[in-house]
Amino acid sequence: MLNKKSVDDINVKGLKVLVRCDFNVPMVDGKITDENRLVAALPTIKKLIADGGKVILCSHMGKPKGEPKPELSLAPVAARLSELLGQEVKFAADATVVGENAKAAVAAMNDGDVVLLENTRYRKEETKNGEEFSKELASLCDVFVNDAFGTAHRAHCSNVGVTEYVDTAAVGYLMQKEIDFLGNAVNNPERPFVAILGGSKVSSKISVIENLLEKVDTLIIGGGMAYTFAKALGGSVGNSLLEEDYCEYALNMLKKAEEKGVKLLLPIDNVIADDFSNDANTQIVGTGAIPDGWEGLDIGPKTAALYAETVKTAKTVVWNGPMGCFEMPNFAAGTEAVAKALAETDAVTIIGGGDSAAAVNQLGYGDKMTHISTGGGASLEFLEGKELPGVAAANDK
Ligand code: AMP
């Protein structure tokens, strides 16, 4: 059980609090095109303002590769955050992040003021967890709060290194929610516990499959990786995505599931196409019966119904990865059916970031889910049972 010190457990009155946020928002021509991440960060920031802290915000944006890139400046974020908070967010425009502007802005702060530092990845040490930049960041503050889950699987200066030079490192509300659901609910779920895994390749989900087999009652497999299982079981998969090298592994997983009494469900039918294109000719065939020249691009309707029925029996459901090539509307039905089933159940529903989160939000089911993770890579590593450096670095309660 992860039990980290949170912003509810610290007293920041009069203290300088450095908050690592995830303000990595999409921008076009200096305009923010999706401000969800800014809105999501507000509860932690407001709490620290209300408690009388001097709130110093920092984040990365894109990949400037260790040098200042004006198009990746956080200046537009400061402007928009000022509007969202209804108070000035002073932007410290330093190419070195912790430079003269940042130091002067912090020195001039009153309780409840907010300052935003420049893009932490303007410094090349950031992604290498270098000591000097970590110390510089720590020198600005008394207390550190990490609310950036999307980078929690990386050890960088602004989420891990800095914690070595401060007395208190706590987590914000966003991080706390990720820990509660992805960490604790997955490790101590209300049963039956069903996990749904999709996406392109078996090879990239091996650790997730292995870890979840230890915990779930039912494991549902869809997406491109299902064809490696179909081939391993002696079926023909045509031109479908196939990782020949992983067929033996797939058989081992089936055996392991049986030994553990875990129900492992594979597709029973598939939507196949004669080209990797939304305009391709399509037909529905049983699993393992895909003719040469055709490829499976979605689970079929019988599979979608089976998976939706299985979701209904669950008390906890975790979903990571689409059931097919959902980016093409003609191959999105399987992913949509799973999203709908999750939206309709009363079970605890946890969406593990990336494509599944995008699909759920696009379909308008976002507010029907118990938790949608904000971090693709980080949520996958949580599901693999790994310790995330950004989480581990926060103090225990
Ligand atoms: P991943 O990053 O491994 O979670 O995979 C997500 C990608 O898998 C999406 O872009 C899907 O289009 C792709 N995908 C899902 N099902 C299939 C399939 N049957 N064939 C090829 N790609 C697929």
Description of the molecule:
With 397 residues, the protein is α/β, with parallel strands linked by helices. The chain has 2 domains: 7-176, Phosphoglycerate kinase, N-terminal domain (Rossmann fold, 3-Layer(aba) Sandwich), CATH 3.40.50; 189-383, Rossmann fold (3-Layer(aba) Sandwich), CATH 3.40.50.1260. The protein has 13 helices and 19 strands. A hairpin with a 2-residue loop joins strand 2 and strand 3. The chain is elongated, with a radius of gyration of 23 Å. Bound molecules: adenosine monophosphate.
CATH structural class of the largest domain: Alpha Beta
Q: Which fold name fills CATH's third level, the topology of the largest domain?
A: Rossmann fold
Computed Rg: 23 Å
Distance between the first and last residues' Cα: 12 Å
How much of the sequence lies in strands comes to 15-25%
Instruction: Count the DSSP helices.
Output: 13
Morphology: elongated
Q: How many domain units?
A: 2
Averaged pLDDT: 96
Major sheet: size, sense and barrel closure? 6 strands, parallel
> What name goes with the CATH superfamily of the largest domain?
Phosphoglycerate kinase, N-terminal domain
